[in-house]
Amino acid sequence: QLQLVESGGGLVQPGGSLRLSCVASGFSLDYYSITWFRQAPGKEREAVICISFSGNINSTDSDSVKGRFTISRDNAKNTVYLQMNSLKLEDTAVYYCAARSFSCGNNPAYWGQGTQVTVSS
User: Fold this and answer.
1) 49 by DSSP, 3-state: which?
2) What letter would DSSP give residue 75?
3) Longest C-alpha distance within the chain, in Å?
4) Distance of alpha carbon 18 from alpha carbon 53, whole angstroms
5) Which of 25, 43, 65, 94 could form a disulfide with 69 if both were Cys (CB 3.0 to 4.6 A apart)?
6) What is the pLDDT of residues 32-80, one digit of tens each?
7) Torsions phi, psi of 107, nearest 5?
C-alpha cells in the first residue's frame, strides 16, 4: 500500500549525467528522510546520500560521490531526486530509494524496487 517508485535510470557514457526520481504513494514524505542506496552485483548495498525531513543533507560514507551527486526534495510533489553528474564506471548499480522517519539513519521503513544505472563506453 505504501510504495516508493524510482525512475530515471538507464545507460550513460562515462562523464555523463542522469537524474533519478523517487515518488512516494500511500504516505507523505513530509516527516521522512530519504536515502539513496546502490548495489552492484556481488557487492553489498551501499548508502550513497540522504536528505532528512528538514532538508539537511548527509553524504553518509560515500566520499566517492561528493561533488558529483546531489540530492533534493519537493514535498509538494512527494518526490526526492538524485542528480548524478560526471558518472564513472564504478557508479554502475541498481539504485534504490528508502524512507525512514525524520532524520537519516539505519533501518529504513520503506524501500523502492530500484532502477538500473549502467555507465559504459
Assistant:
1) strand
2) G
3) 40
4) 24
5) 65
6) 999 999 999 999 999 999 999 988 888 766 778 888 999 999 999 999 9
7) 60, 60
